[in-house]
Request: fold
Amino acid sequence: DAGVTQSPTHLIKTRGQQVTLRCSPKSGHDTVSWYQQALGQGPQFIFQYYEEEERQRGNFPDRFSGHQFPNYSSELNVNALLLGDSALYLCASSLGTGGSGNQPQHFGDGTRLSIL
Amino acid sequence: GQQLNQSPQSMFIQEGEDVSMNCTSSSIFNTWLWYKQDPGEGPVLLIALYKAGELTSNGRLTAQFGTTRKDSFLNISASIPSDVGIYFCAGQLGGSQGNLIFGKGTKLSVKP
Reply:
């Protein structure tokens, strides 16, 4: 039973560039959430996708966008990269319940993004 | 961004000792979760709590959902070297508010 998988594991970009990170959810899960984790901090919520739509968004600028595909996998795109975007980007998947309850989120090992 | 108050920030303990850490919030949550994160890896779910007052165990780990719904506690009994890592609490409002709000973590180090 494959867990949440993310690619790539590491990435180095320069300021102003654009990046795409990918996530495949745990088998049987249909909801994908993205988090940014700065060094020494807890993860911060970016957005959540369910049924190929952005269901909820955290306090992140429009430079951060995403997509969910019919097979439930997801992408996180960041445009016009800033030095402050350097962080571990985590994907979490869960089973959506349409608001009738919470199912725990399971995390991948993340993509370490470094901006030079 | 919004974060929970998690304490202690770090702790050193002797192998075999019991460990306690807690998390408080000014907001009420419907779900509390505890995760452990090892270096270079993502957070791994340890325990999920869904009801105020709920006490749940997972091996040597026990967690409680506070009766006010604004706090949670995690206890580790008889610590061993592999307990080393960073422990995060996370609160979740639920329903359409599916995002997790995390604490800053408790870094646990064990002296062998």
